[in-house]
């Protein structure tokens, strides 16, 4: 145990150190998450030749949710001895700030989308509404059709002047399980999945990211990556291994019937197709063109999902309840005011 504590402290001191990136998030380079290739969104702004790029590089929701989860777990494991007490205090401050930022600036529903659409730019001072100076014309057209009146989600990435509006399954599910998403936001995520079942689930669960990069975006961003053609692999491919994560999120939000429906779809094809790694196509209809079969995580993901749906009491093993001690951080003005 002393060695475990020592190594935890080394990692925490590294992750909690001061830096020049956007506090309190954790900076992530491209390729440092499950999406391990260049999957950046490029969008024309104001019909000029300038392009805005935002994607996995920066502060993707998947990494921020994992970071939050790790901080909460480390707080439980850390012994308040010697410098442990000081580290716990730093963890508490980071958890408070991180949860506030994600819950406020990553959330997107119909109302918030309409607000962003009407944003003014180049605002200054503490009265600014458009904190990240997002240019409304940078909102991709697909979002307006995709967003239902009921439901919402945590968007993929937020950096100054740019947002990645794509849906990422892993980040949203981990946000639910770690309680990074508020109960209302968790419910909205499940509502969105129900409203957009054909897009996010289709004929085989589960779509890792929506939508896919196509045409010019695919050519310029991925460099003609043959593995990441549209609706394949990490570019909108379907990954059955994620069924356990999805099932756990459904159980936590009181929607086990959604998970059962997804598991039934999985059972119809996954064993017959040889437990492939991923599926291709907008609906996940085709076995992936470069997929490997009899994948351990495809099999174990299904088994864990079945065990959890049969006995939801196992959920606390991989889930954390909402932390009532977390409150809105105190926001103070700069001394220059």
Radius of gyration: 20 Å
CATH fold title: Glycosyltransferase
Helix/strand order: HEEHHEHHEEEEHHHEHHHEEH
- The count of DSSP E runs of length 2 or more, i.e. the number of strands, is 10
Level-2 CATH architecture: Alpha/alpha barrel
Number of spatially distinct domains: 1
Low-confidence stretches: 41-54
CATH class: Mainly Alpha
Oligomer: single chain
Q: Give a quick account of the main beta sheet: strands, pairing sense, barrel closure.
A: 2 strands, antiparallel
| Computed structural class | mainly alpha
Number of helices: 12
Lateral strand order in the biggest sheet: 1-2
What percent of residues adopt helix (DSSP H or I)? Answer: 40-55%
Tell me the span between the first and last alpha carbons. 49 Å
Q: What does the overall shape look like?
A: globular
- For the residues shown, what is the average pLDDT? 89
Query: Into which percentage range does the β-strand content fall?
Result: 5-15%
Family: Belongs to the glycosyl hydrolase 100 family.
Enzyme class: hydrolase
Pfam family, one: Glyco_hydro_100
Protein name: Alkaline/neutral invertase
Summarize the structure.
This protein is mainly alpha-helical. Helix content is 42%, strand content 8%. The protein has one domain (2-317): Glycosyltransferase.
